[in-house]
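ok new one. same drill as before - structure tokens go in, u give me an amino acid for every spot. 441 of them this time. try not to just spam alanines like last time pls lmao
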């Protein structure tokens, strides 16, 4: 029997050289990816400040796991009837199949991962620390993606910080300038009457008289947009003076937002004292930044982040009310809104029932978000026909106002919501959200 008979004819049109070339291309791709990961791990391993920072990020993730339990967010994975879905995951309720003990076990796994990767960084096993940190952020965002109520600035900033730390070169500069961007754009959001008057604060500040709130709030904007640049300039006395003010700012924020934000930020901003106490060269990062001497990847990252912060301005209406574009942007203290949300359920008998949909248990930044009540209306359309065969449709109405301007304006006025099969577009303007403006009559 010939060799050709045993092995069969060669594949038509595919030569050995072509097969070898394809395998070589695959090996080249795998080699590039492996080299990319290795370079990131080696950069962390060669820099004590970065190894310690990797461990400090554990503070932020352990605080995230604690928040998951304290706020009982594990219930978001178990209760399909009350689910609020993200626009890119509109059928999330179908996947909330865990029992309460199983959802608690998921949180315990997150806590274990958050405790494990800092130990690996501290022991010098940087590769394992890098991998466990990646696993932690993946699990964290798998949980967050299950329900829109998990949307928090804390998660948003921690994700950006982790991505920069894991995947970007020149991590000392990249992570610090990214954190500066957090502060700068958060300060820009606060350039509104609600914040500057002090009326946007939901709780009393520690030690600061109410009469001085406008001064204190204005100073925070100056701190975040101007003084923040002192964190990357070479003068030690100026650095420590400004850094101490940020520490005080986050300590005072505990009285407003409780423990999660200040503890999470303690881990994120620890890179500033670490880089100051463990210097790596005598360069002037601030000068290098403005003279474009830092890596192009850093400028690209900051440009993308800045574009996302500006994206709400591209949508019609007041972004503080419509919330369009804020899914990919910071949203703290954007001018708190008040709202009235009513659903009129209509039946074949001609009867109608008006239901108050306002959700008082949500955070001030979320309880007047149109996406929340879009989800609620969708839930009624999905469930009520099975509960009452006489149900026909519903009309959805939402009026909004600001805490400093009691005049209300319509934001949603949609008849026959169910029949129209309305969808929420995460990227383009939604025509069913009216372009209300705070300065409109």
């Amino acid at each position: 029997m010939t060799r050709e008979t045993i092995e069969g004819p060669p594949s038509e049109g595919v030569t050995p050289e072509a097969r070898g070339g394809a395998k070589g291309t695959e090996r080249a791709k795998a080699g590039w990816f492996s080299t990319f990961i290795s370079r990131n791990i080696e950069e962390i391993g060669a820099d004590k400040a970065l190894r310690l920072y990797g461990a400090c990020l554990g503070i932020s993730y352990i605080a995230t796991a604690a928040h998951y339990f304290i706020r009982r967010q594990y219930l978001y994975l178990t209760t399909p009837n009350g689910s609020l879905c993200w626009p890119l995951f509109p059928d999330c309720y179908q996947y909330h199949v865990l029992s309460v003990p199983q959802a608690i076990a998921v949180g315990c796994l997150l806590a274990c991962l958050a405790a494990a990767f800092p130990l690996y960084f501290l022991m010098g096993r940087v590769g394992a620390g890098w991998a466990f940190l990646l696993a932690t952020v993946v699990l964290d965002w798998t949980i967050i993606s299950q329900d829109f109520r998990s949307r928090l600035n804390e998660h948003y900033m921690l994700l950006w910080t982790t991505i920069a730390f894991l995947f970007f070169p020149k991590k000392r500069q990249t992570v610090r300038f990214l954190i500066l961007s957090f502060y700068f754009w958060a300060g820009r959001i606060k350039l509104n009457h609600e914040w500057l008057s002090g009326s946007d604060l939901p709780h009393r500040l520690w030690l600061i008289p109410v009469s001085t709130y406008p001064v204190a709030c204005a100073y925070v904007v100056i701190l975040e947009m101007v003084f923040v640049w002192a964190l990357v300039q070479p003068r030690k006395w100026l650095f420590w003076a400004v850094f101490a003010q940020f520490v005080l700012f986050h300590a005072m924020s505990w009285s407003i937002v409780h423990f999660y934000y200040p503890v999470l930020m303690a881990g994120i901003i620890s890179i500033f004292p670490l880089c100051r106490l463990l210097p790596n060269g005598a360069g002037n990062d601030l000068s290098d930044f403005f003279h474009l001497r830092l890596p192009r990847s850093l400028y690209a990252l900051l440009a993308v982040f800045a574009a996302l912060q500006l994206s709400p301005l591209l949508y019609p209406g007041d972004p503080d009310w419509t919330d369009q574009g804020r899914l990919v942007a910071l949203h703290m203290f954007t001018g708190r809104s008040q709202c009235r949300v009513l659903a009129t359920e209509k039946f074949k008998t001609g009867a109608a029932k008006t239901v108050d949909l306002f959700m008082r248990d949500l955070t001030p930044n979320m309880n007047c978000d149109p996406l929340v009540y879009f989800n609620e209306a969708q839930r009624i359309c999905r469930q009520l026909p099975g509960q009452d065969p006489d149900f026909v449709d519903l009309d959805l109405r939402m009026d909004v106002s600001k805490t400093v301007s009691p005049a209300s304006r319509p934001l949603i006025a949609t008849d026959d919501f169910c029949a129209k099969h309305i969808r929420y577009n995460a990227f383009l303007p939604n025509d069913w959200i009216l372009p209300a403006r705070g300065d409109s009559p």
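Residues 1-13 have pLDDT under 50 and may be disordered. and btw The CA atoms of residues 336 and 365 lie 7 Å apart.
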